[in-house]
Each structure stands twice: as C-alpha cells, then as structure tokens.
Design goal:
- The complex is a heterotetramer, with two copies of chain A and two copies of chain B.
- By secondary structure, chain A is α+β, with helices and mostly antiparallel strands.
- In chain A, 25% of the residues lie in helices and 25% in strands.
- Chain A has a five-stranded mixed sheet.
- In chain A, a hairpin with a 2-residue loop joins strand 3 and strand 4.
- Chain A is globular and about 35 Å long.
- Chain A starts with a strand and ends in a 6-residue tail after the last strand.
- Chain B has one domain: Molybdopterin biosynthesis MoaE subunit (Aldehyde Oxidoreductase, domain 3, Alpha-Beta Complex), CATH 3.90.1170.
- Chain B starts with a strand and ends with a helix.
- In chain B, 45% of the residues are buried.
- Classes of the chains: A alpha+beta, B alpha+beta.
- The interface between B and C is medium-sized, with 34 and 34 residues.
- Strand 2 of chain B pairs antiparallel with strand 2 of chain C.
Chain lengths: 85, 146, 146, 85
C-alpha cells in the first residue's frame, strides 16, 4: 500500500523533497524498518537519515517511536527533534 | 475555555490575558516567548507540520486541563518568519487559585517545546543560517511532569 | 530593571508585559491576581503598613533577583477598596530563558502572600464583613523556596 | 524610651486605635514581653492580643519574631498574619 512520507526541517532540506508517496515491501512494518528502507532510495536519503538517533517520526500525525507500526498507515512524517516554543 | 491557535500573525498578550481574567478565577498566569537577537540573528523561521500541529497542541491543552482545575487556557504559537523582539509563543492559564494557574502554565510551555511539531531555523546577519538543535534541558523540563 | 509599586489605581498587565518584553530576554512570565466574587462578595478592602510595604516588596524583589538571572521584574500591589473582577496584584519577570522567568514569578507571588504587610477584609452583599484568614497553604508555598 | 506602637487589621479594630506611643518598663526587652505588657493596658488590648499565636510583629518595619529585641526600637507594629497577594 502507498504511504505518504513527509519530511521536515533539515531532513526535508537534505533529501530535497517535502514528501513523496512510496510503497514499501511487506516486511517493512514499523518506523525503524521504514527509515532503513527509505535510506536506500538515494544518496540524499541515506545522508539525511544517517543519524538515526536524531530522526523522529509521526505516524498518521501522532508522534511515534522506532517500533511504532506503520501497517495500514496513510502518512509517516520524518523530522529532527522538535524545537518549538 | 480552551483556545489553541497556530498563526502567522502577531498576537497581543494583554488582549489574551484580559479574556482569561473574565473567567471569574482568582489567578491568571502567562508565559510569552520572544525571539532573542543573539549572535546577529536577523530572522527566525518557524516551520511546522501544519496538518498535525493543531491536534498536537489540543492534546497538550487537554492534558493540562485534566491535571489542573483550570477555568481557561490559551495556547498561541506563531509560524513563518519572525524577527528579534517579536513574540513567538503565548501560554495563558486561569484558575481559582494561583497554584494551578502557575503550574499549568509551566507545564504547557515545557510540553509545547517537546511535544508539538515545530522547527526553528536561525538566519544571521552574515548570511549563514542553521537549524536550532533540540536542547537536552527541554526534554528534561518536559520529563519532570511525567 | 526592578519596578515595585503599591498603588490604589488600576494597572494594565499588557502595558507591564510590554515593558518586560523590551529587555531583550527570550521569556516573560506573569501572574495576575484578581478579586473573586465568591459568596456574594461586594468589596475587598486592602489595608497595609504603608511605611513598610515598599521596603518589604523591595526585599522580596531583591531576593528573586539574587536567585535567578532576571533581566527585569515588576511587582504591583493595589491597596484600598476593590470590587470583584478587579486586579489586585501583578508579578512579571523577564529572563533569557523561560525557567528563570517562570520560577521567579512563582516565587514572587508566593512570597508576596506571606512576606509583605497587607491584610484583606471582605464585605458581602448581606452587610457582613470579615478579615481574610491567612492560609496554611500559603505559608507552605512560601516555605518551599527556603 | 517611648516607642510608637502601630496596629493593623483586626488587631487595630479590636483595640480601637491605629497606634499609640508607649514607654514600657525596662524589663520589657523583646516582642513577646511587649505584647504581654500591652495586653495589660485595657480590656480591649487584652482581648485583641489574647491569641498570641495569631499575632505577628514588625520592629522598625522589619518582620520580627517573639524573641526579637525591641531595645532602642522606634516603632513596633502588631497585626494578624498577612493576607496580601
């Protein structure tokens, strides 16, 4: 199933995309696996996502952890730790 | 009264406080965040996950309303380009007694810093720019409420 | 900037906050105390030891300024006859970072409640009146800063 | 030596005076002794000052405790626990 991937802040800048629609293989079932898989898409993806400790995610607009399931998700956002306030 | 707003426009803390004072409580607390002009900063750019931000702020507001007996709370976060001296964020709380208003106010700003999808980019007079790094202290400040 | 005022006149929190925002800090916190109209209260009379009040408030302000890196603080306490909905007290603090502003604000209102010579008398719609009793919680709130 | 005594809130109301100038005997050297001595001045004083636990003091405009010295003081204020803020 296609998932909308959104990128924010320096993740967005390094990848060079606001987002993209992807269809990961069936064994990509959680956030960590999705990031690993996206990192293989291009050099830019690999670089942007290299430092896994500094990548955060939201699945269907709720903050997620690496083990959060993406099965059935419509949207996954990837970004650095938030800095609002 | 829970009022949560994400906006590019400026806001007026005096107007926000007046609305909270109308609720019949004995105490109104507020926090206003302002863009500091450190290191020749000329602009702060606030990016956010627009479809998610409102819901994330509502979740934070509901958490505060569940913890403290509040008569009202107001959360405003600006997005877009801001210059030094401009207000970025406003948290206001009203309660019968001061303790609830003050604690909820501190909680709300701590959580806004760590649980809402905003990112700041700083632009300096010499043309350079950089994304603000999350601070460990902010995560610790938020964690003390868990 | 330390501004301490005891006055019969009303004050405007928006104006006070704006002055604190001018100081170049990243955070401004405030607390405003308001007369609640509980139990048919029609008037709150604030008595004080006029010759002593200013100095007591200056002492409290100096204590806060010594504990937290503040860019400014404002303390306003009204005296005389107040009606429900009127503002009694204002505490405002400005600092580079929010923690100092928020903590100093909470400290200042806790201490104003217990270390400044004010006394409140409530007058009710049925003609009765009574002096407000000091609350043990207020002493405890102040004690946590010792 | 004469000392100005000031009364506030219900202490003032019960005594019926804003203040008075008094000259306590030499053995009245602290706040507690001063209150004991003032309580002998009249029935109103005795009543107003009866509940010692609810009487607070300031000596020369600084908050004091029962054992605070009044030797050389120009002013002593007596009042209930404060209720500002």
């Amino acid at each position: 199933m296609a998932i909308d991937i959104l990128y924010f802040a320096w993740v967005r800048e390094r990848i060079g995309l606001d987002g993209e629609s992807v269809t990961p293989p069936d064994d990509v079932v959680d956030v960590a696996a999705l990031i690993d898989w996206l990192a293989t898409s291009s050099d830019a993806h690999a670089t942007a996502l290299a430092d896994r400790a500094r990548i955060r995610a939201a699945v269907d607009q709720r903050f997620a952890t690496p083990d959060t399931s993406i099965v059935g998700a419509r949207e996954v956002a990837l970004f650095p730790p938030v800095t609002g306030g | 009264m829970i009022s949560v707003r994400v906006q590019t426009e400026a806001f007026d803390p005096g107007v926000e406080l007046a609305a909270l004072e109308e609720l019949g409580g004995g105490g109104v607390a507020s926090f206003t965040g302002i863009v500091r002009g450190d290191g020749d900063l000329v602009e702060l750019l606030l990016e956010h996950h627009a479809a998610m931000t409102g819901a994330a702020m509502e979740t934070i507001a509901a958490e505060a309303a569940g913890r403290w007996p509040l008569l009202g709370l107001t959360l405003i976060h600006r997005v877009g380009a801001l210059t030094p001296g401009e207000r970025i964020v406003f948290v206001g709380t009203a309660a019968r007694h001061r303790g609830a208003a003050l604690e909820a106010c501190a909680f709300l700003i701590d959580w806004l810093k760590t649980a809402a999808p905003f990112w700041k980019r700083e632009r300096f007079a010499n043309g350079t720019s950089r994304w603000v790094e999350a601070r460990a202290e902010d995560a610790e400040a938020a964690a003390r409420w868990r």
